[in-house]
Amino acid sequence: ETGVTQSPTHLIKTRGQQVTLRCSSQSGHNTVSWYQQALGQGPQFIFQYYREEENGRGNFPPRFSGLQFPNYSSELNVNALELDDSALYLCASIRIGTSGASTDTQYFGPGTRLTVL
Amino acid sequence: QKEVEQDPGPLSVPEGAIVSLNCTYSNSAFQYFMWYRQYSRKGPELLMYTYSSGNKEDGRFTAQVDKSSKYISLFIRDSQPSDSATYLCAMSKTGGFKTIFGAGTRLFVKA
Q1: Which end of chain B has fewer surrounding CB within 10 Å, N or C?
Q2: pLDDT digits (tens, 9 = 90+) for B1-13
């Protein structure tokens, strides 16, 4: 198993509510990415955080937002939940050097399964 | 057209068979190629990681990248029932950034 942890494991919300998901990166990793994986699909990139700032974003609306903390852990916030937001939310971490890139690959946590009713 | 195409299967093989999994892609800027294994309701687990073209072998697993054809493959030798999972191909332009995944192929290995 990787050193990436996520909480909670499962979550049930109703449409219109807000949710916060948490991720602790693997030791030595300074960058966190979030992905959404709908049932039967591959993960889709939401955004990445590096040095506490958003460092790239996929095709997701602004109601998906995030934070990265000085210890490199991260939060994903989703406002105004919709039924289609039901998915497995994955966090991945990696160490990116001062060049802004890495020759390593990222490692995934176990995910948080969000159900929106 | 999706950036990465992967046949979702399912693919069913007998124990001991050689399994071939494939993906095609359209963006020639991809430089990093990965294969992940994902068991039901778990996060993806990295199996193989290749930079640029060529082959890479790790135990029963071999990954191949053909950038001229924009085609990547994963071969599993002597397949075992424990290999039954969804296999995701993934790729990125820059290491560690914005990884694009295929839809995943569901593999069943029958004892």
Answers
A1: N
A2: 789 999 988 999 9
